[in-house]
Design a protein that fits this description.
The structure is a single chain. The chain is built from 13 helices and 17 strands. The protein is an alpha+beta fold. Helix 8 packs parallel to helix 13 and helix 9 packs across helix 13.
């Protein structure tokens, strides 16, 4: 029996006595397919940058990815739905699977600078995945001005925990062994699907209810749950999100920004803040403070009024350890009012740390169990979690999603190529103009910012604003009492 239902959900595979195995999507993945819209695709992406020798043939990297796909059956399957969304869609082998469609080789025109790469990522990630094919794409991009190679992936939420398609490893020459070949299995016929649907309705009516919530019924059910969940965050959500800059009805076009920072700088700030009897802040709080300072400087640069009381509400998923469980097994989705109106970087950090501590201590964040109840979701990796939560919450509760995922601090490789940098690409949830993902890797902090193209024409200015925010914090570390120049 094949088991469907990723993310730890109950099995949804069913064996027909006179037919093939019917492998259903979990309610989590089904609901996410239904909530997705043409102008707000919700696949999660990443941009990986690799060092490569001058004579490296990118076809080799494409073949390495192809070999990995051969050992990952889910990446060769597509989604097949019954009309009316009576029960969950099913996974079926793609009998016309075309690897060249999913793994594409591209090149930037000269000069191949970062701005061109960002534009390429924005165009690629703005396009929805083809529902008639397996729900993933990888682009191997050469022509970068520094001789490096970029790999851009976009993977639907339904596949997010089926494995890493790029095959990153800490071993320089680790490769997937060749598979034994693959022959697609014909999917169930319409008659078999209808027959299994009838059995499901009789034997498991409770499990079918979650799927019937597709379309408008799903949205209404989600809205009701959001109202109840909002009550648990009443203190944090006493006011609506600020709207204005960060609220938009998207037309689909995107901008993307990659920003690099030093993890050592953030650690230096963290260490300095623990002097004088103060509690040492978390690295997560320091990273959020950098983003807050960057947003403050960026808002001011575009001529917006930023009064002292102004804040920007971020929906921030946080992985925690609780009651003896290992780190990462419990997830809190917190609403943090980022104090962009506060002029002191040290005070911003203290306010953000206090908000984090207070919400976690009061259990005022949305726990993983609550998220599953809201739309059938189970929490995957944190970047994906932020997208899932944001897609099902009212746009009035927050201004933007910010995720921060600690990455490995050792050298990683793909097909023998050393990984230089990794930038997350979070999709925009409905009604929002910006999403920020952060990933630390090998002593660096990499920021990936996706924004609506029309609403945020000046996104590139955020790069200098983030760098200035880091300098503000470092300057405070060097002169906490402001004695310079006195």
């Amino acid at each position: 029996m094949r088991i469907a239902g990723l993310h730890g959900a109950a099995p949804h595979a069913v064996i027909c006595h006179d037919g093939p195995v019917i492998d259903r999507l979990s309610p989590a993945d089904s609901s996410f397919l239904y909530l997705e819209e043409a102008h707000t695709p919700t696949h999660v992406g990443q941009v990986l940058i690799f060092d490569a020798p001058a004579d490296y043939d990118t076809h080799a990297l494409s073949m390495a990815i192809s070999a990995r796909v051969e050992r990952m059956p889910r990446y060769r399957q597509r989604v097949h739905s019954l009309p009316g969304r009576v029960v969950s869609p099913v996974w079926v082998d793609d009998t016309e699977f075309d690897l060249d469609y999913h793994v594409r080789r591209s090149a930037l025109p000269a000069p191949g600078d970062r701005a061109q790469l960002q534009d390429f990522v924005a165009r690629v990630c703005a396009r929805p995945l083809d529902r008639h094919r397996p729900l993933w794409e990888v682009y191997v991009v050469e022509g970068l001005d520094d001789g490096r190679i970029a790999v851009i992936s976009k993977v639907h939420q339904a596949l997010i925990e089926s494995g890493d398609i790029t095959g990153l490893s800490s071993e320089a020459r680790a490769q997937d062994a060749p598979g034994a070949g693959w022959t697609p299995t014909p999917g169930p016929s319409a008659r078999e699907l209808l027959s299994d649907t009838a059995i499901s309705l009789v034997k498991r009516p409770g499990s079918v209810v979650g799927t019937v919530r597709g379309g408008l019924a799903e949205l209404r059910a989600t809205a009701g749950r959001v109202g109840r969940v909002a009550g648990t965050v009443a203190k944090a959500a006493a006011r609506p999100a600020s709207g204005r800059t960060f609220a938009v009805e998207s037309a689909g076009a995107r901008r993307y920004l990659m920003v690099d920072g030093s993890l050592a700088d953030l650690r230096e700030v963290r260490k300095a803040m623990s002097t004088g009897g103060h509690k040492r802040p978390s690295l997560h709080a320091v990273a959020l403070t950098v983003v807050t300072g960057g947003l403050r400087i960026w808002l001011q640069s575009r001529g917006e009024h930023v009064p002292a009381q102004r804040s920007v509400r971020a929906m921030v998923p946080v992985s925690v350890a609780r009651d003896g469980t290992p780190y990462g097994s419990t997830v809190e989705a917190l609403f943090i009012d980022l104090p962009v109106g506060e002029s002191s970087p040290a005070m911003r950090l203290r306010q953000i740390q206090f908000a984090l501590d207070h919400q976690l201590a009061q259990h005022s964040g949305v726990r993983a169990a609550d998220l599953m109840g809201m739309a059938g979701f189970a929490p995957p990796a944190l970047h994906s979690l932020g997208v899932r939560v944001g897609a099902s919450l009212s746009t009035r509760l927050f201004d933007l999603v910010i995720t921060n995922v600690p990455g490995p601090q050792r050298q990683m490789y793909a097909d023998g190529l050393p990984l230089v940098a990794s930038y997350p690409v979070l999709p925009l949830t409905k009604g929002h103009a910006m999403a920020i993902g952060m990933t630390s890797y090998l002593g660096a902090m990499h920021y990936g910012v996706l924004a609506d193209r029309e609403a945020i024409p000046d996104l590139d200015q955020l790069r200098a604003a983030i760098a200035e925010a880091v300098e503000e914090l470092l300057h405070w570390v060097a002169d906490p009492f402001g004695t310079e120049g006195n």
